[in-house]
Amino acid sequence: MHTLTVALADRSYPIHVGAGLLSRAELIAEKLPQRRAAIITNSTLAPLYLAPFRAALESHGIDAVSIVLPDGEVYKNWEILNKIFDALLEHRCERKTTLIALGGGVIGDLAGFAAAVYQRGVPFIQVPTTLLAQVDSAVGGKTGINHALGKNMIGAFYQPLAVIADTDTLSTLPDRELAAGVAEVIKYGLIRDAAFFDWLEKNIGRLTAREPEALAHAIECSCRNKAEIVALDERETSVRALLNFGHTFGHAIEAGLGYGTWLHGEAVAAGMVLAAKLSHRMGLIAREDVALVTDVLGRARLPVAAPDLGIDRYLDLMGHDKKVEEGRIRFILLKRIGEAFVSNGVPETELAGVLGMRAAHA
Ligand code: NAD
Ligand code: GLY
């Protein structure tokens, strides 16, 4: 097991990464203010992991109720959030009862938001089971739900007490979901870690082949990058915005096609290609760099051409992005591979050019 720390003064917390951690209930027990917990998971994960996980908690004297939600991005909404509150109240969960998210980013975001607001805030632990959640969504305290008009538009910053990433759970993850997680892994290389991108370029096949050592290395590098960024800028007033590289386009793709049609990581992959093309059009990176980004994402079995929603629809959807300031869409661009920055100055002609280019090539 490797442990990293998200350094946030008295709210600092560990990220434990390793095999077999679902049975290491002491990692959870040591964090609980009360021997009661509510496990929030979904109908896919429950038959795979809920019984042994719950048994491990019970062996440490933790009385855990379970709340099993329907599976899917389309359920990351108010209605399902309210079902969590119904269950917490029916089970008489108290202020010191810890909510444990057992699942991917959808469960983590929903459960984290529930924890942020139930009784004005209860303890919360992330037990991520997808690659995407282990490298990104479980770390950093962004929680929330979708709105029909925009992705992740309702939510709260709320940090967990611990993140416990059991890499064994990835063995049951479908290939398409694994690839979606690799998109976020590649993102870290592109925005701030050229050496890691170099490693990814050489080792991407080992990740898609699920080699445990390669996966462990990718998860650790990703979590290290994410932890550093979150420690610098917890509430996204500066550098944390870089984590949204490709996401402005990606969120538009997800919302535009209907949540769940493309996976989040798939939309981000196609969005990163658009963001790389935009960086090239703005005179920042070379055409060869765009080709390299596209090649690595393609070898990770991710889509590199965005769907044709039409330029007007893209502009409308991107106008709802959380990075919009005073009506202007802000973009994360690449100065070079391994260094990104926030740009307020993308002319609409360049944007239309990239989206038009994409439409012409799609
Ligand atoms: P997900 O939570 O929908 O999980 C993907 C699918 O895999 C689901 O069907 C799930 O049931 C299944 N699954 C999960 N673990 C499994 C396992 N071990 N074995 C078999 N099946 C398993 O998707 P995701 O990619 O984990 O997360 C995407 C969500 O995360 C999006 O809503 C996105 O907005 C959000 N997100 C949040 C942040 C953040 O900082 N909070 C960052 C990135 C993404
Ligand atoms: N996934 C973006 C962030 O955590 O800021």
Task: Give structural notes.
There is one protein chain. The longest helix has 21 residues, at 212-232. The chain has helices spanning 26-29, 45-59, 78-90, 105-117, 131-137, 175-192, 194-208, 212-232, 247-257, 264-281, 287-299, 311-318, 348-361; strands at residues 2-6, 13-18, 36-42, 63-69, 98-103, 124-128, 142-147, 150-157, 162-166, 331-336, 339-343. Strand 1 and strand 2 (13-18) form a beta hairpin. 47% of the residues lie in helices and 18% in strands. It starts with a strand and ends with a helix. It folds into two domains: 2-172, Rossmann fold; 175-355, Dehydroquinate synthase-like - alpha domain (Dehydroquinate synthase-like, alpha domain, Up-down Bundle), CATH 1.20.1090.10. With 362 residues, the protein is α/β, with parallel strands linked by helices. It has a seven-stranded mixed sheet with strand order 1-2-9-6-5-3-4, sandwiched between helices. Strands 7-8 form a two-stranded antiparallel sheet. A two-stranded antiparallel ribbon has the order 10-11. It has 13 helices and eleven strands. The structure holds nicotinamide-adenine-dinucleotide and glycine (GLY). Glycine binds next to loops.
* CATH homology superfamily name of the largest domain: Dehydroquinate synthase-like - alpha domain
Mean pLDDT: 95
Distance, first to last CA: 44 Å
CATH architecture of the largest domain: Up-down Bundle
Task: Tell me the Rg in angstroms.
Answer: 20 Å
From the helix content, strand content and strand pairing, which structural class follows?
A: alpha/beta
SSE topology string: EEHEHEHEHEHEEEHHHHHHHEEH
Strand content: 15-25%
Number of domains: 2
Instruction: Tell me the CATH topology of the largest domain.
Output: Dehydroquinate synthase-like, alpha domain
Within the largest sheet, what's the order of strands?
A: 1-2-9-6-5-3-4
Quaternary structure state of the chains depicted: single chain
Cofactors, ions, other ligands: nicotinamide-adenine-dinucleotide, glycine
- Could you name the CATH class of the largest domain? Mainly Alpha
How many DSSP E strands?
A: 11
Q: What would you call the shape?
A: globular
Low-confidence stretches: 358-362
User: Percent range for helical residues?
Assistant: 40-55%
